[in-house]
Recover the amino acids of this structure.
């Protein structure tokens, strides 16, 4: 199972699911997007939250999600455990981010908190 977490573009994985990705899933410091170990980083902010200019515009977040979905589609042999990316330190809300994953392939499993936004056609794994 590939642990999908929210990152910052600089790949400073210091808190939340990003920190869990480093300690338990092989995430790599200074790699803000893409596969690393048994994880996959999706940037939800530019730099670590709290630093000047940390915010990421929603269109860029959408682009990163699209890139991840293309990767997941091309790797049907892998299963992706998608956390509630962007809904913690980055400050996005579930109703904003979850719909970006509506077209996710069946090898993506989501936090059950997103069920009300994605519906029962998707698979779920639990909570983080």
């Amino acid at each position: 199972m590939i642990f999908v977490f929210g990152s910052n573009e600089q790949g400073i994985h210091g808190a939340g699911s990003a920190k869990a990705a480093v300690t338990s899933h092989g995430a790599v410091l200074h790699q803000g997007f893409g596969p690393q170990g048994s994880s996959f980083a999706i940037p939800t902010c530019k730099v670590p939250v709290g630093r000047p200019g940390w915010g990421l515009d929603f269109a860029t977040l959408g682009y990163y999600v699209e890139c991840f979905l293309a990767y997941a589609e091309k790797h049907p042999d892998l299963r992706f455990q998608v956390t509630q990316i962007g809904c913690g330190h980055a400050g996005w809300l579930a109703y904003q981010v979850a719909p970006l994953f509506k077209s996710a392939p069946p090898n993506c499993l989501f936090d059950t908190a997103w069920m009300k936004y994605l519906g029962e056609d998707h698979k779920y794994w639990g909570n983080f």
Remarks:
- The chain has one domain: 2-126.
- The longest strand covers residues 2-8.
- The mean pLDDT is 94.
- Strands lie at 2-8, 34-36, 39-45, 80-82, 108-111, 123-126.
